[in-house]
Design goal:
Two copies of one chain form a homodimer. The first copy, chain A, is an alpha/beta fold. Helices cover 45% and strands 14% of the residues of chain A. In chain A, the strands form three sheets. In chain A, strands 2-1-3-4-5-11 form a six-stranded parallel beta sheet, with helices on both faces. Chain A has a four-stranded parallel beta sheet with strand order 7-6-8-9, sandwiched between helices. Chain A binds a DNA duplex through residues 3-5, 13-20, 22-23, 26-29, 32, 47-48, 50-57.
Chain lengths: 334, 334
DNA sequence: TTGTATGCGTTATCAA
DNA sequence: TTGATAACGCATACAA
């Protein structure tokens, strides 16, 4: 690999001049510029970004931490963020936190030590205090899908509670009263918020929440499947199931069908997230829209605005979930 | 952020000694070691990996390039690789190539310039020569899902042609003769290999390939949908559809149902990849298993073996696809 | 407009 | 077992 020094030799200019044309900030005469450009070309010179980072303390890359690398939800968020960043010539460095405190911290520290210019964090296991501390360490970052009052300006969120409320309200309005709920891992704030919304809707309709109608799943297809199994085994009656995400809804629908229950004639199902595949299930899944793309882009904008562009634009911090009505919920009022 | 220098001062040892305990390679007396460790703790010292990389020309991280960050296929591959690497304390730096030559090259060069110790590449648009050249540049890398004879030792592949053959053979054995084919973008080698396998199976059964039964999709749900629309519009008869991946199969099934065609009674459908969601579609999708997890782990092993462990283990380079029979294909022999 | 010199935070090669 | 000191490849303040 050619270095800046070899380029400067070949172009017979100083090292600093080469650096100038690389970053084309300082004024360089057209003539010497061309000389340098030519030298760079013949040497097939590529700047060593590590050295650049060390010298300038900037890396032109932002670190992204998501819980898992797999799964439609995370991957489409990463994708949106990466696309937005790359438009500005910035790169994404991505790593996974695995919903584990130690692992999440490790990931964050790794990204920092790689001198990322900013971080976009989808963390779940790390404490609020850790993040508040992170802010004090003067590391620019936003959290996605996690709200912490003390650092509200750094949070970009969906109103998960409202989403849960909307989903169950819809079921209630369609005449359902015995509503099973398949939750995500309840220690995760988004899972518990969605569940709280569910409870609020029930309360509003004066329906008593039955603890036997709650199953705590894992946000994956398998969780939905097991939830249905559980409800069926206990023999409790339910006319609808609200699922905390689309994957579990898909698993639930599959399990219901296997047990001979028609959807939505025997059991209605509603999901959450509005992932792409929910348009292609059978029946097509009614769900709550999570504007992943918008949130991803917003997170990227936050970074770009705060860091590179330097104009402090106002940014949307709280996004509103919306009901998406398709074919998996039946109106049993009639 | 504390530096190695400050640690050395606090521990009143030399800078070199601190470096030694960080990398605990050289011999350091227990006593001074503890002094240094204590100093590191009180200063909350974290090594600057950028500086480490620059000085040592290693980064303890491997670069991964996939076509897209979204999509079940890529994301589960990334996930498997990352997991395997992290087990050895190595980090993954991930970026996207977007199936575009310029973008893929950019991604590769970015990873190199970040001084990744090795690369795992899922590239599509870049030429064979570029990769052969890359090998000459002495950059350790493996390609996934792309076979290049000249650098066979660096390739980890699925036998896509065989997979396409198996899928269509299965359809033929079940009595189907009018088989529509929804391909991926045919300029991609995996898509065209799968299609070639399809043709070989047809030839073996002495079924003439009908060009009107071919639709070139985009590997996404939408492609399957459009494929079905296209076939239906042309009014051509078909009793089965082979899809080049599961997403398109899902789209195709959805479109068929919308047009009132039952699956598999009216039309049989087979997919490719065996993504998780294919177990949860309705009907459950028959497909070809792509051992993504095994391939991801193998790629990671290659890197680990070649780079860090230094024992040259034999590694599987060609993986064999397998038929997964579920409910979406009907036997019409009877 | 260009060049010189210093520093970024480490590793690694010498000596001691 | 330890300590100086020179790289690593580049950015940048200061001089010219």
């Amino acid at each position: 690999m050619a270095t800046i020094y070899q380029v400067s030799e070949l172009a017979s200019v100083s090292l600093a001049t080469v650096s100038r044309v690389i970053n084309n900030n300082s004024l360089v005469s057209e003539k010497t510029k061309n000389k340098v450009l030519a030298a760079m070309k013949t040497l097939d010179y590529r700047p060593n970004t590590v050295a650049q980072s060390l010298a300038s303390n900037r890396s032109n890359s932002v670190g992204i931490l998501v819980s898992e690398l797999h799964g439609s939800f995370y991957s489409s968020m990463m994708s949106d963020i990466e696309l937005a960043l790359r438009e500005f010539g910035k790169h994404a460095i991505i790593t996974a936190g695995h919903s584990d405190e130690k692992s999440e911290k490790e990931g964050v520290e790794f990204l920092i030590s790689r001198s990322c210019d900013a971080l976009i964090l989808h963390v779940e296991a790390v404490s609020d205090d850790y993040l508040i501390d992170l802010k004090k360490r003067n590391i620019p970052f936003v959290t996605v899908n996690r709200y912490i009052p003390e650092i509200a300006a750094n949070c970009i969120c969906l109103d998960n509670e409202l989403g849960g409320y909307i989903a169950t309200s819809f079921l209630l309005k369609q005449g359902h009263r015995e509503i099973a709920y398949i939750a995500g891992p309840l220690w995760k704030t988004d899972a518990s918020d969605r569940y709280k919304g569910h409870l609020r809707a029930l309360a509003e309709f004066q329906v008593k929440a039955n603890p036997r109608l709650l199953y705590e799943g894992n946000f994956q297809e398998e969780g939905g499947q097991k939830g249905v199994q559980y409800f069926l085994e206990t023999g409790i009656f339910f006319s609808a199931i609200a699922c905390a995400n689309d994957e579990m809804a898909a698993g639930a629908m599959s399990a219901l069908r296997e047990k001979g229950r028609d959807i939505p004639d025997d059991v209605s199902v509603i999901g959450f997230d509005n992932l792409i595949f929910s348009r292609y299930t059978y029946p097509k899944l009614s769900t709550i829209n999570y504007p992943i793309s918008a949130i991803g882009k917003t997170a990227a904008s936050w970074v770009l605005n705060n860091l590179y562009i330097n104009r402090k634009e106002d940014i949307q911090h709280l996004f509103t979930p919306e009901l998406v009505v398709r074919d998996s919920v039946k109106n049993i009022n009639e």
